[in-house]
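Treating backbone geometry as a discrete language has practical consequences that deserve illustration. In the encoding step, the backbone of a single protein was reduced to a row of integers, each denoting a local shape. The amino acid sequence and the backbone structure tokens for this protein are reproduced below.
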Amino acid sequence: YDEECELEIDNSSVDVSKIGNYEVTYTATDSVGNAARKTVTFHVLEPDTDEYYLVKANELCDKIIAQIISEDMDDLHKVWAVYSYVREIPYVLTDYTRNYIREGYNLLSNYMGDCYGSYSAVRLLLDRLGIMNIPIQTDESVTRHFWNMVSLDGGATWYHVDATNWTEWSYRPNMCMISDTRLDSISAQHGGTHYHYYDDYPSTPYESMPVPEDIAIAYDIWE
């Protein structure tokens, strides 16, 4: 009845000093007595655990997705939005923890990180969007680098997505939804940055996925 209602919050059962799940009830009541109630569950987590960081990471991913993703986007446009967002995050070398949840959260929250952080951030965002992706890494006897492979058709077809901010390269080529052939070409131009064991990963089509015109214009892609 009223546009603004009185809101009561019953959080009497919550004990933030104890790990557990707690119900909190919100009750909105208008001036003539109509009331609506909603009960939600709050999770009090042990700090510095993977579960804690996953909750924090998903909250942050949801905020970023709300900024960069629109309802009319198909999955290809969503991948491009994620790639373009992460690729602009400054590169800062850190020690790899090999924990993608923490590394991805750290990169997105601190707005800086290395290739493992970039891969991890892309993984967290795509997972949140329900887009299939897998991790990929180089042969560490040659170099050490991490990125993603992405499929838009349920795993039948895969492409490479590397959102690392290669600031030391004089020219930053498109590395979103590219083929093995294109990845090899880029790697060869930069000292074998992406040399990996191909048998350990899905193969891609010979050609990279074509870049739609609107994406090329939006992200200044002309190759």
In short: The first strand starts at residue 6 and ends at 10.
